[in-house]
Structure formats: C-alpha cells, structure tokens
Amino acid sequence: MMENFLSMFSRTSPKLRSIIFKPLYQFMARSYQKSDWKFMNYGYAPVSGEYQDISLDEADIDNRFGIQLYDHCAEHIDLRDLKVLEVGSGRGGGADYIKRYLEPEEMVGVDFSEEAVRLCNENYDVNGLSFKIGNAESLPFRDSSFDVVINVESSHCYSSMDAFLAQVQRVLREDGYFLYADFRRKEDVDILRKSLTNSGLRLIKETDITRNIIEALNLDNERKTALIKERAPKPLAGFFHQFSGTNGSLIYDRFFKGETIYLSFVFQK
User: Fold this and answer.
1) What is the C-alpha to C-alpha distance for residues 221 and 216, in angstroms, rounded to an integer?
2) What is the pLDDT of residues 153-188, one digit of tens each?
3) What is the Cα 35 distance to its own chain's centre?
4) Are residues 134 and 151 in contact, defined by beta-carbon separation less than 8 angstroms?
5) Hey, which bits of the chain come out as E strands?
6) Fewest CB within 10 A of the end CB: N or C in the chain?
7) Hey, is 105 helix, strand or coil?
C-alpha cells in the first residue's frame, strides 16, 4: 500500500508535491526533536577506484554517508572565508558540517519548514552558522548576498525549478558558485537539464552519482533499519523504510534498476 501511494505521489504535479511536502517535514521535525537525527539525504559512498572515505571526528562517524554527499558537492570549491547559503537545509546536518569542516566565513541554512528551522536553531550552537525560514522560490535575501549556494536533495519538492534557479542567480555574487545534487525519474532528467541550461549559469561539471548513492544505501542499511525498529512508531515503520531508502524500498529499487537517476552539478554565475 505504501509503495502504491509513493508511486502515485511521484507522478503528481510539482505544485501538488510542494503542498504535500511541507506538512510532512513539519510533522517529522515535531515528532522527533533529538539532535542525533541530522541528515535526511540518501548518502554518498565512494565506489571502486574513487577516493577513500573522508576523515571525520568520532562524533560525526554515524552520519558519514550523509556528510559525504555534502563533501562530494563541495569538493571542487574552496569554501574558506566565503559566505555560503544552503537552500533546503532540513535538519541542519549539512550546514553544520560545512561550517565546522570547510570553514566558510558565514553559513546560512534556509528551509520552508518553520519547525525544522526552530529545531536547527535549538540544536546547533556554532559561531557563524544560522538558520532562517524561507521559500526556495522566493528567497529572503538581497541580491548578490552569497559567494556560494548549495542545494542537496531538496529541489524535487519544489513547485517550480525555474523559479528556484532564478532566485539562485539573484542571490549569487558575480562569479559565485551553485553546488547542486538531486534525483529525478529517468524520463524527467532532460527536463531538469533544460531548466539548468536556461538558468544562465555556466556548467562546470556534471556527474552521475547513482552508483555512489546505491553504495551508501547498502552500507548504511543495517544502521537505518535498526534505528527505524528502535525509534519509529510501529504504524509508521513502513513509511520510514520507504522515506529512508532501505533495501527493498521503492526508491532503492528505482535507483538499482536505473529508473531514477541521481546527478550532481557545479555551476558558476
């Protein structure tokens, strides 16, 4: 039943998906407020012949795969002393990692979920890191405010990719960078590329990281499954398995079969 619902949901219009996603994320932020759940992305793991896992403090090791997706997105740009904006900051783990490890001057996370933003401001006390409420399609910042905008596994929720990209263009300074990663159904990848091309941003690098996502889902499956069993209410366990992409879930199967593609990009204004 859950798989049928998610299959139908993935085919709804972007506008309807954006309406449904907000109360969902509000609910998750309210229902689990502990600071140990920091990432909601599917993670990233190196595959044969690629770089080794990054070095992390002991306290961050459990979140390795979520962190490595951010590290992959940011690896081509030196963020030190820059002003960085994350659009769709969720539970804040990515912004926290960037500020502590990659050392930008300022790191701002913006999210449409008021509950998520409140949770982040309560859970993180890092100098130069802040979280604000805002819509990706109408960002609450002045023109040319940031050196870098990063957006990780969030844009599939938006009602208009074109409106979001126009906002990225607006808030980026000249020569600033847009670091972007997300998934799409295979038949929608060309639509995504068209929006990115029409944004006016200059493409520096595009990478298909689907294999890396699958590898991370495999390596993190045991941990996620145990956490769902331990902490999720039993009536919602099936939902959380689907949401987190555990082995056998609809999203996992689609990645594995090549029906859903995960891409990362580096753009410059």
Assistant:
1) 8
2) 999 989 899 999 999 999 999 999 999 999 999 999
3) 18
4) no
5) 83-87, 106-111, 129-133, 146-152, 172-185, 202-208, 260-268
6) N
7) coil
